[in-house]
Amino acid sequence: DSIAKIDSLNKLQQLKAKAIAQTPAAKAAGNAPLTDSSRTTDSAAAVTKMKDNYGIFYPALKGTNGTTTLENDLIKMQIANKGGKVESVTLKSFKTSEGKPLVLIMPDSTHFGLILNAYTRFISTDTLYFTAVNTSQASNADSGSVTMRLNTSDPHKYLEYIYTVKKGSYL
């Protein structure tokens, strides 16, 4: 008997919702174009939500796709801004059977990132944008170093990956 009452109440609520949705005012509101103020409110709410979710990492959500080259006499590395990871590695002294450069790591063939437990959620660094800082390359490309920095809203707090290659080394 109580189940029948619950079913009746649910049907009644559905009928009321349907009737309200069919009123001229509801139809007009549903078809009303977005105003600039409603768009601004929506985008401001989205920004606030993203800031709440990512905390000090919020600035790193946006950046430019690109790479930084680091090389020595044996290898050439491309390091991506997004994720700060090694995107490709080419061996200079070796060729494929077709005579093409031997590429050990190709773009989108690797997954690298840290999972940070912050702000009551997990944040993966592979979706955030890094900036190349402290790049040094010997003039003859024998050795070099690049620091990929994940900037935050606090200039004194950041995460860095430091990549270094030395002459005669594949590491």
Give a verbal description of the structure.
The chain is α+β, with helices and mostly antiparallel strands and 171 residues long. It has helices at 2-21, 24-31, 36-54, and strands at residues 67-71, 75-80, 86-95, 101-105, 115-118, 121-124, 131-137, 144-151, 158-165. The termini are far apart.
What structural class do you assign from the helix and strand content?
alpha+beta
Give me the strand/helix succession.
HHHEEEEEEEEE
Number of separate strands? 9
Return the average pLDDT rounded to an integer: 81
Task: Name the helicity range.
Answer: 25-40%
β-strand percent reads 25-35%
With strands numbered from the N-terminus, the spatial order across the biggest sheet is: 1-2-3-4
List strands and helices in order, with pairings:
Layout: H1 2-21, H2 24-31, H3 36-54, E1 67-71, E2 75-80, E3 86-95, E4 101-105, E5 115-118, E6 121-124, E7 131-137, E8 144-151, E9 158-165
Quick structural summary:
It is built from three helices and nine strands. The chain is of the alpha+beta class and 171 residues long.
List keywords for this structure.
171 residues, alpha+beta, 4-stranded antiparallel beta sheet, elongated
